[in-house]
Every structure is written in C-alpha cells, then in structure tokens.
C-alpha cells in the first residue's frame, strides 16, 4: 500500500514522540512492503508562534490531502492557564476536529499485566479492564452558540444535538460492540437533559438493527462512579462530547498506563491518531518522554487502513519492550531507564 | 434552642434511615436541652403515588415554614429508567432545590481509618483524604431553556450563569476555605465554555478579598483524573451544577465509605440535609440499610444551626460504633452485622 500521512507534531514532547512513531511505522512498512510518505505541518503553539494561528489553512490542506493524520501533542505554558486569551492552541484543536469532520473519538483503556501495580486502583479492581469509549467530538456544548448578555454579566453555552449526529456515532458504537463482547453502554443524563433524551431515544430505536448487542443506559454520574469501582465491567461506551471529555480522562488514569494510551479520531473522510497524553513542556528535549502511546497510535492507524497484522506487529513489539524492561523512566520503577530515542530505536529494530 | 424540622423521608430505604437520624437527633437534643419538632411531608415516588406530583405545594409550605429539612432518598423502579416519562421523582428534586433556593450543595468526602480498605483505591492514595465540594445547585444547564426543534430531530439544552450566581457560591467556597486549609480549587472548562470563563473571571476578581486563600484553577477533565490519582491533594472545590454532579459522585466512591457520606444543600433562607446514597429499593424494609450517612447529615444540620458540640457528639458516636463493630452488613466485612434499627438505637443510646 502507498500511504501518505500528515504529521502534526505540535508542542513540547510532541516532536520527540512522533519521531519514534515514524521510525517504528517505517520499519513495519518496510517489513510488510508498504510505502509511507510523511508530510509535516504546523499546529498548536508552534503554529501560533510561526503564523499567528493554531490551525492554519496550509495545515488543513495537508491533512485533507493525506490518508491519515498522526498527531503529537499541543499546549505550551506561554498560552496555557489563560483561557481568557484571544488565540489559544485549544482553538486550533477544535477547528481541526470540526473542519476534518472527526466526529468519533475512539479511546481504549486497557491494562498491561506488567503495569498493573502502577494503577491507583487495587489490582482486583483493574485486572482485565479492556474498554473503549466512543466520544462524540464535533457537536454538543463545545460547538453550540456561546456568548455574553447583560453587558457581560450573563454567560451562556448552548448544547445542541441532532438525531443524525447521534446516529452516526451510535452506528460506530454498535459496530465496535459487534467485534467485541457485544455490550454497549449509552452514557447520558436523560433524567435532566433534553439532548440526552434525544440520545437515549435514538439509540433505543437502533437496538432492533443490532439484535445481538445488549445495550445498557446509564447516567453520567453513575458511570463516573462505576469506572472507579469496577472498570472491568464495561466494554464499549458511547457518549456526547463533554461527558466524553470528562469520563475518558477519568478512565485514562485507572489503568496506571496513561503514558501508553493511544487514541483515534475518525470521520467519514479523515482520521487522526494521537497519544492521549499532553505536551509535557517540562520534559521537552530531555529524551525522557515515553513514545509508546504514540507508537500504539500508529498501530491504530495501520488497523484503520485494514492492516491488522501490521498493527499487531507494533503491539507485540511494545509488549516485548515492556517485558524486557526497555522503557523510559516513567515505567522504570527503580530499574534502568532508557531514553526516548533508545526506546524508539529498539522498537523499530525488533518490530 | 427550639427547632422545627421538615422531614422528607421519600422512597425505598429513605423512611428507615430517617427514623434512625431522628432518634439520634432527639437523643442529642435531650442531652443539650434543645426542643426539636419533626414535620413529615411527602416527596418522590411516594408523593406521585399519593397526589400525582413529586414535590407538592403542601410539602413546599412545610419546608419553608421549617428551620431545616431532613431528606431521605427518592427514586423507585416504577418511575426509574424511564427518563422519557411525564412525571418523575427527579423533577420534584429539581423543583425543590429551585423553590427553596438551595444554591449550594456541600459534599464532603473524607476517610474513616477503619474503612480505608473498602476503598477501590490503594491505601496510600486515599489516606488523609478530606475534601469538600461546593456544587452550584440551582443554575446552569439543569435549569436553562431546553427543548426540541425541527419536528423533534434537534434537541437543545442551554447552560446559563450570571456573575451573581457565581459570586454567591464562590463566597461560600472562600469562607469554607478560610475555616480549613485555605486552599480553594475552581473547577471549570474555561478553555471551551463561555460560562466557565465567567466563573473563572468572577472567582479571580474575588481573590483580593481573601488574600489568605490560595486559589487554583483546574479543568474539569483534569480534576476527574486527579480525584482518582491523589484525592488527598484537594481541600475545597467549587464548581457548576453539571460538573459537580459528576465529580461529587466520582469522589463519593473513592473513600470506600459511600454509605457514610452526608451532604447539605443550603441557600439564603433554607437548608436541607441528606445522605448522598440513593433509595436502594431492593433493600426496603429489610432492616439492612446503613443509617450512618443520614445520621451524619443530622450532624451537619446541628452544625448549620451553630451547634458545633452537638454535631461533634454525633460524629463521635458514629466513630465509636465503627470502632466497636456496631455496623450494618455493608460494613461488617465477615463480622457480625446489625440491623438498621439496632444501629440507630445504639447511636441514640451512646451519643
Ligand atoms: C484541550 C481541550 C479543548 C480538549 C477537549 O476538551 O476536547 C482536551 O481536553 C481533549 O480531551 O482532547
Ligand atoms: C437525580 C438527579 C436529577 C440528581 C442531579 O443530577 O442533580 C442527582 O444525580 C444528584 O446529584 O442529586
């Protein structure tokens, strides 16, 4: 296969971890006879610094032309903690999601046996956890009308969903559930919100098209609890944008392997793959960042192209690295810690 | 002191746990020479069954006339899991909060040394946790305009906040922080929401009035993570209605003592005290429900009246009961389990 991939390395440790993912992807491509082209483009604080906006049109054009986007991380202290600033990296992120039509954010949370003890949860609570959130990513209160009234004294954010938006996300949920344990949980707040009642009603009406899937409906506050109590009781969860933001982050820490968690954001035309961790500006250029989440995001990218074996090859080599202790300091646990580049090299060599 | 208290026992185990709280409160009142009058009123499914609505006017009048409200729990299977139904117990709850002006929900999360092992979190993560959420309870997306357009195909919920609403909640937060470790965390999503930017802006402007309080600003998704990772790093947290709903429930399970967690909802004129647990219909009338959360809610009620010693007396007797194993089956851990009434009697006798 010939694949062209847009590379949005972003800020902080973004460029370093992306470099390793490219290295490993190239090694896999070589092994399986694919041809990858990498097209770098600016985003985040790096883009604001260079051209004054976080998601420039040139970057968008490169993403649209590519078969997929590999994304690092964005955010830099000089733009952080000032949500009142005019131009912020986050705005670029939201524009990008919207303009690329990336309506489904896919966030798996799973455990690595060798890392179970890193979890803040007790072993028996976390063992066997393997769940996937599908978070709606281009609608809801993130993109509804927002503003001020009464000379700035009143603020509002409108949350809006259409049935079609719910359906296209739910279809992905049902389909994913069919490839797994056929359990789907619809997370909403239908006892309070009209948008949630639309979600529930829409998903209920789709149940008949997937008779094998068992669907449960749970309120977002109950899920926030059960995720900590029995994360391994979940399989596929679908939810709207804001609930997904909160719950996927909550879920990301329970496994104790946050530095290893990949994600995908997909639409009809485009797809983007990125580690769930942030840009960790303090770690920039120290050669200590863990590249594995980005490498596993590249695995999801291969799988998205239908290249299952290639994806599995990456997952396998990451597992070997964990088993043999070829890890960065966040996972070294008193043992020897390797550099970002060393780990990347090892993965590329052994894949 | 002469105090008149409205009693809204509600559904499921509500009446049983309320009965014990009344018993213990009466014992405390006797000891400290107060005169308590209890005025029962209907709410929840019980009220729907009796008069067709979950928060009847007669109930409201009784609450308004009282010095405080003691609330059990509401919710019954026959009205549950059907958020599309016309009349639901939850609606009564929301009406009650709004009509009584209970704008601040106070939700402490703390640990009991003897119960640390019940937490899903590892001991070292949870030890020393003692935090309080102040959740805004009468505004935001819960009470904004909501509805359908396009023949039902589009749903919307509007989230609205005024500066005055933020201020009155934040004042309570700053004041509470002053009585504790002087740390306040404002939880918002100011990188996305205009209402959150109003929250942040308003709280920032109030900092100068409380120079001793150190204020931090954190995004809701980050708090959802840190609550699981290091709950003991928080002290007082203030937040809007929906974020508070999710985060207080998440926080309630980390201590492992959910059956013991009290809460208060206060306004300018009225105040209500209730356990955070639900109505557990399956446990109704089995004499197995843990009454301690309701008893501790009564302690918060005494403290609200300025009766600190009385509140402390209740807290002390609950601690003794835990220490001596005078507990219901949820806490018995293989040891002897006592009935709801036995535990209530013991607390009343030993207070
Ligand atoms: C940075 C922020 C706008 C973003 C979001 O809320 O979607 C982030 O938290 C995420 O989850 O990707
Ligand atoms: C029952 C529901 C309407 C309510 C809420 O969302 O406020 C409950 O979850 C709570 O937290 O008291």
Indicate the topology:
The structure is a homodimer of 351-residue chains.
Chain A: E1 2-10, H1 14-32, E2 35-40, H2 44-51, H3 57-65, E3 68-73, H4 89-99, E4 104-110, H5 123-126, E5 130-136, E6 146-149, E7 154-162, H6 163-178, E8 183-188, H7 194-206, E9 214-219, H8 220-229, E10 236-239, H9 241-254, E11 262-266, E12 271-275, H10 292-304, H11 308-324, H12 329-332, H13 340-350
Parallel strand pairs in A: 1-2, 1-3, 3-12, 5-10, 8-9, 8-10
Antiparallel strand pairs in A: 4-5, 4-11, 6-7, 11-12
One 3-isopropylmalic acid sits between chains A (191-192, 221) and B (90, 93, 245).
Largest sheet of chain A: 10 strands, mixed
The biggest chain-chain interface is: A-B, 61 and 61 residues
CATH topology of the largest domain in chain A: Isopropylmalate Dehydrogenase
Mean of the pLDDT scores of chain A?
95
CATH superfamily membership of the largest domain in chain A: Isopropylmalate Dehydrogenase
What is the chain-wise order of helices and strands of chain A?
A: EHEHHEHEHEEEHEHEHEHEEHHHH
Could you say which small molecules are bound to this protein?
3-isopropylmalic acid
Keywords (chains A, B): Amino-acid biosynthesis, Branched-chain amino acid biosynthesis, Leucine biosynthesis, Magnesium, Manganese, Metal-binding, NAD, Oxidoreductase
Family (chains A, B): Belongs to the isocitrate and isopropylmalate dehydrogenases family. LeuB type 1 subfamily.
Organism (chains A, B): Polaribacter irgensii 23-P
Pathway (chains A, B): Amino-acid biosynthesis; L-leucine biosynthesis; L-leucine from 3-methyl-2-oxobutanoate: step 3/4
């Amino acid at each position: 296969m010939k694949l062209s991939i847009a590379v949005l390395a972003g800020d902080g440790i973004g460029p370093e971890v992306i470099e390793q993912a490219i290295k490993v992807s190239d090694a896999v491509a070589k092994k399986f006879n694919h041809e990858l082209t990498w097209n770098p483009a600016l985003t985040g604080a790096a883009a604001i610094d260079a051209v004054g906006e976080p998601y420039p049109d040139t970057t968008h054009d490169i993403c649209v032309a590519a078969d997929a986007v590999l994304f690092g991380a964005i955010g830099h202290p000089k733009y952080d903690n000032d949500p009142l600033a005019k131009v912020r990296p986050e705005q670029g992120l939201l524009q990008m999601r919207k303009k690329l039509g990336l309506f489904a954010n896919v966030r798996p949370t799973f455990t690595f046996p060798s890392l179970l003890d890193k979890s803040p949860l007790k072993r028996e609570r976390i063992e066997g956890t393997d769940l996937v959130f599908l978070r709606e990513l281009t609608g809801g209160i993130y993109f509804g009308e927002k503003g001020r009234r009464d000379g700035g004294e009143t603020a509002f954010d409108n949350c809006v969903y259409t049935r079609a938006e719910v359906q296209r996300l739910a279809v992905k949920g049902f389909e994913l559930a069919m490839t797994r344990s056929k359990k789907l949980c619809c997370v909403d707040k239908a006892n309070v919100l009209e948008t949630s009642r639309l979600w529930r009603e829409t998903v209920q009406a789709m149940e008949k098209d997937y008779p094998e899937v068992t669907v449960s409906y749970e309120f977002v506050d109950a899920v926030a609890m059960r995720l900590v109590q029995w994360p391994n009781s979940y399989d596929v969860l679908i939810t709207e944008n804001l609930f997904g933001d909160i719950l996927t982050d909550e879920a990301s820490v329970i496994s104790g392997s946050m530095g290893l968690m990949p994600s995908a954001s997909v639409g009809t035309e485009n797809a983007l793959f990125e580690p769930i961790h942030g840009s960790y500006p303090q770690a920039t250029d120290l050669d200590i960042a863990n590249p594995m989440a980005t490498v596993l995001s590249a695995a999801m990218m291969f799988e998205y192209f239908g290249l299952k074996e290639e994806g599995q090859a990456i997952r396998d080599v990451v597992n070997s690295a964990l088993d043999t202790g070829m890890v960065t300091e966040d996972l070294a646990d008193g043992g020897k810690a390797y550099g970002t580049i060393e780990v990347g090299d090892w993965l590329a060599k052994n894949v």
